[in-house]
Specification:
heterodimer, A: alpha+beta, seven-stranded mixed sheet, 14 strands, about 20% strand, B: alpha/beta, five-stranded parallel sheet, 15 helices
């Protein structure tokens, strides 16, 4: 017989602690090829970014890993700029509730907004595949223009490249944005304290499920559309009601679960989430249930997570409810000290479990 | 789509009532039950059920996770087919990350193989119809639950005369695996939570040998928290009154005779293999399905020259013992350190229904909390 670890509780706990040390160890890029998992926004993406890109490109601003880089041209903390970039490769280009154009504008505006910045201007870079219908490009460009206009931001510079057929999938869009950070605004996970509340501005998983269902392979009829929207006004509304808001995060790829894990890791705290408190549209929940996917792992494009001191949480919630994009907002969790770096979900039936980051793509179970 | 149907089975108050009754029934005794199906394992962890159970109830996670029981050599074969130049290889998402001796299908895709994930074999057949110049292969895995849809797809392919479509058949049957576990010398189980989805196809009768020949009760169960709790209660009740029979907790879906239509198309298209290798359980006779001679034109195993080599599992991997319930996931030497859901060594760590992945994702916390409480440290609620 090979030696076997004992079955006692202390043995089991020792084993788990070992697994947790391994789990919290630095991200390392061990793969030899890029796989689709590296693009999912979950753990593999972290290995790619923190295990390969950051070490090579290292500098103090980049190492902050915020949604936007905060740069201080005056060097004195006033007139700070937020700068961010994002690339969009969504398929299909058009989906219920939006398209790649407005998505590209909203996504970058939201990255700026999460640092509390007021957006100043955007750039747009287009990679076009040979054979793309001009009509499609026109529709997407119009959508970019409409989204920027309604957010009160101009597209001030751009670039286009055309690649051979098969070297891209119709149309890829990159947008970058610059915003002005109000003096005194300092939204960082490091400011989070025990007892703070976690708020979500509305129903989760709408965007990811809308796109997933719009994909060719999935013949499922459901009334689900993307939530893509620009969040900077909602951020202003919340900050006015809750000036001590610790931080915002938009839970895009990897969903609420991945964002909360990132927050818990950076803030060195534990976040407890009540499963029943998380708003999910019935149709979205039904589709997730059918596909065996957790809505907390699905992307959102018009929702924000806010961590707010308990004393201001209800004012913030009321402010969200008063805004068009925050009608379904809810307090979903609380910051507790232990176990550090983890997100724990209180399940609807009174149990609890670890809510981990997304691993791989959110693929359906098969039986 | 309405969720009211499901919410009804996730009500905290009814769960509480079931637990209280279970607690009374169990008293100071202890029982070890196996939930055969991976869907149950997933439900148990996802809802945090295990920590709500009385201390005397120990759940062992069975072999009913289709991804977990596929031996490494079959993944090697799949990758070999996928690398054939004019082939588009289609698979359920879970299988993408299962390691072979030379990486996973996801790796093969990154290196140039045309691998796509589909939600059903009919999606693969559609690909074949739309891409007449590619050879579309569907990687069929799963128990009696998924086998009928593969069978229906084969029938459709033949009816429509689609020649560029084939199936790499790895369907397995649950009964021989349960029998292998019952015959294992390590067996210490007191009863089985029967697989609800499989039973909708095969019905209740195939389980009757378990009480008859082995004297163990079986309760076929649904997948919601109240279903699982109630089925455990039904098992304990049987044992308390000294009975051993097959009971149906999932009567809202499962009929005693099963789905005769599905069984009929299975018999038309597939036949039992003399034997098949199961990950960790070894070769089990008459435990898997192959495609019948009449459908040879759609049988990837006959069309493609697969290596068909038996690959031994990595030495460190103890998936076999986990699948038999001999050890708990956390007792495996590589659990959580070198074997994690991102870089799985064994199959049990790949699928969300695998015992190790379920335990890694959901179970650990409950344990830590239990340990903290028993040490008097307490955890914030």
């Amino acid at each position: 017989m090979t030696s076997r670890i004992g079955t006692s509780l202390p043995d089991q706990v020792a084993r788990m602690e070992k697994a947790d040390v391994a789990r919290r160890s630095r991200y390392r890029m061990k793969d030899t090829h890029i796989t689709l998992s590296h693009g999912s926004g979950g753990k593999a993406s972290h290995h790619l970014i923190e295990g390969l890109l950051i070490p090579i490109l290292a500098n103090p601003v980049l190492d902050g890993l915020g949604d936007s880089a905060i740069i201080s041209p005056n060097g004195n903390g006033s007139g700070r700029l937020a700068f961010t970039t994002d690339t969009y490769v969504v398929s299909p280009l058009f989906f219920p509730g939006g398209d790649i154009g407005c998505l590209a504008v909203h996504g970058t505006l939201n990255d700026l907004a999460m640092s509390g910045a007021r957006p100043l201007c955007l750039s747009v870079g287009l990679i076009l595949e040979e054979g793309l219908l001009v009509e499609v490009l026109e529709r997407v460009t119009q959508s970019i223009a409409d989204a920027a206009r309604s957010a009160g931001v101009a597209i001030v510079t751009g670039d286009t490249k055309v690649v051979e057929r098969g070297k891209a999938d119709q149309l890829f869009v990159n947008t970058s944005g610059i915003g002005l950070v109000p003096d005194g605004a300092d939204l960082l996970p490091e400011r989070i304290q025990t007892g703070d509340r976690v708020l979500i501005s509305g129903t989760v998983a709408d965007h990811g499920m809308a796109v997933m269902l719009a994909r060719e392979a999935l013949d499922m009829e459901a009334d689900i559309s993307s939530d893509t929207a620009a969040l900077h006004e909602l951020v202003d509304t919340v900050l006015a009601a809750a000036p001590n808001t610790r931080m915002f995060r938009d839970p895009t790829r990897g969903g609420v679960a991945t964002s909360l894990n990132e927050i818990a890791g950076r803030a060195a705290c534990c976040i407890r989430v009540d499963e029943d408190a998380v708003p999910v549209k019935p149709a979205v929940r039904g589709a997730c249930e059918l596909l065996g996917i957790d809505p907390l792992h699905i992307a959102n494009e018009g929702k924000l997570l806010a961590v707010i001191p308990a004393a201001e949480a209800h004012a913030a919630l009321a402010a969200m409810h008063g805004h068009e994009l925050g009608r379904d907002a809810a307090i979903i969790g609380e910051v507790v000290p232990e176990p550090v770096g983890m997100v724990v979900l209180n399940t609807g039936i009174g149990g609890s479990r670890v809510l981990d980051m997304l691993v791989g793509d959110p693929l359906p179970r098969i039986c | 789509m309405s969720m009211r149907y499901v919410d009804e089975y996730r009500d905290a108050a009814s769960i509480r009532r079931l637990i209280d009754e279970l607690q009374r029934m169990v008293g100071g005794r202890s029982y070890q039950f196996m939930e055969v199906c991976g869907g149950h394992t997933h439900a148990i962890y996802r809802h945090g059920l295990e920590q709500l159970l009385p201390a005397g109830i120990d759940l062992v996670h069975g072999p009913g996770c289709p991804v977990c029981v596929i031996p490494m050599g079959r993944i090697d074969d799949a990758i070999s087919i996928a690398r054939t130049p004019d082939v588009t290889f289609t698979t359920f998402g879970d299988m993408m990350r299962v390691p072979s001796s030379t990486g996973s299908l996801l790796d093969a895709k990154a290196q140039g193989a045309d691998v796509r994930f589909v939600y059903s074999p009919l999606d693969a057949l559609k690909l074949a119809r739309d891409n007449p110049h590619r050879r579309i292969v569907f990687f069929a895995v799963g128990f009696e639950t998924t086998a009928p849809s593969t069978a229906a797809t084969l029938l459709r392919a033949r009816a429509e005369g689609i020649e560029n479509f084939s199936v790499f058949c790895n369907h397995v049957t649950i009964i021989p695996a349960i029998k292998a576990i019952l015959d294992s010398p390590d067996m210490r189980l007191d009863g089985f939570i029967g697989p609800g989805h499989v039973s909708t196809i095969i019905g209740l009768h195939p389980f009757e040998f378990i009480p008859r020949s082995y004297g163990k009760p079986v309760v076929v169960a649904g997948f919601e928290p109240t279903d699982v709790m109630q089925s455990i209660l039904m098992l304990v009740r049987q044992l308390t009154r000294g009975a051993a029979e097959v009971e149906n907790q999932y009567a809202r879906v499962v009929r005693a005779e099963g789905n005769t239509k599905a069984l009929e198309i299975l018999t038309t298209t597939m036949q039992l293999r003399p034997y098949f290798e199961w990950r960790g359980l070894g070769f089990i006779s008459q435990s898997a399905l192959s495609i019948r001679e009449e459908f040879a034109a759609w049988d990837a195993e006959r069309i493609f020259d697969v290596p068909g080599v038996r690959v031994t599992d990595p030495k460190a991997c103890q998936c076999g013992e986990v699948l038999k319930g001999v050890i708990k996931p956390w007792q495996c030497k590589v659990f959580g350190t070198t074997c994690t859901p991102e870089t799985p060594i064994g199959t049990c760590m790949v699928s969300p229904e695998g015992a190790c992945a379920a335990y890694y994702n959901y179970g650990r916390h409950a344990l830590m909390q239990g340990a903290a409480e028993s040490a008097g440290a307490g955890t914030p609620k």
